[in-house]
Amino acid sequence: MQPAAASPVIEFRDVSYRVAGTEVLSGFNLQVQSGETLVLLGRSGSGKTTSLKLVNRLLSPTSGEIRVKGVSNGKRDVIRLRRSIGYVIQDVGLFPHFTVERNISLVPRVEGWSEDRVRARVQELLQTVGLVPETASRYPHQLSGGQRQRVGVARALAADPEILLMDEPFSALDPLTRDELQREFLLLQQRLHKTVVFVTHDLREALRLGSRIALMEAGRLVTVLPPREFLRSNDPLAAAYVRAFGDGRESAANRGMS
């Protein structure tokens, strides 16, 4: 007898989202399993960020249902839902007038953690994301882009959420810093086993970080495949991504850059 399949941590059930008469998502069905990094891949306007915002109810679906840990989002207290989900965005969104320590500790303090526990958690997270303890007293403008992004990840992890939503978190960084943070993310995920939904338009990043890649186009889900299978997919759009990826590597080689 086969064991019962684990329930998905996040589930989209026939979700559509319209704004100003335009359908941004249509008939969207997707499951995200515990501990995986599910990458939403697609060009600008494909519905990736909209899908992400539906998970933590920054947006609400026009029709259909999103379930988080088996409970419909429509039945959840929105504040409690958002506090239970880490959220990392491209421009970090740190409060400029708060120190790093205050930025990281926002949710734990709202949740009523003691000051000793908050301070210990901030120092633990700074170490986790590769920042020195002295960073806690600095302000965002005193940090590099890579350091600010690390603080953003630490803030998302502060209350130890099971789920992380990451919206192109590394895309604004220079190539070397981006490569470094991708490597650190992989090591972090091996340790923490969070359930991650990661948005990108970069196939290289999707192949490197994703347990599975969900390809989107014009508000619809095209295919969902593990990275190796994605590279061999016969789907025309997936194949076009792979060809473009290969052409990019060949161009770099021709320029002596690979």
Low-confidence region ranges = 250-258
- Global geometry: globular
Radius of gyration: 19 Å
Number of distinct beta strands: 10
Helix content: 25-40%
Order of helices and strands: EEEHEEHEHHHHEHEHEEHH
Global structural class? alpha/beta
Q: Averaging pLDDT over every residue, what do you get?
A: 90
The share of residues in extended strands comes to: 15-25%
Main pleated sheet? 6 strands, mixed
Cα-to-Cα separation, first versus last residue:
50 Å
**Tally of helical runs:** 10
Structure description:
It is a single chain. Helix 5 (115-128) packs across helix 6 (145-157). It is globular and about 50 Å long. It has helices at 48-55, 78-83, 100-104, 106-110, 115-128, 145-157, 175-192, 203-209, 227-231, 236-254, and strands spanning 10-19, 22-32, 37-41, 63-68, 71-72, 85-89, 163-167, 195-200, 212-217, 220-225. Helices cover 39% and strands 24% of the residues. It has ten helices and ten strands.
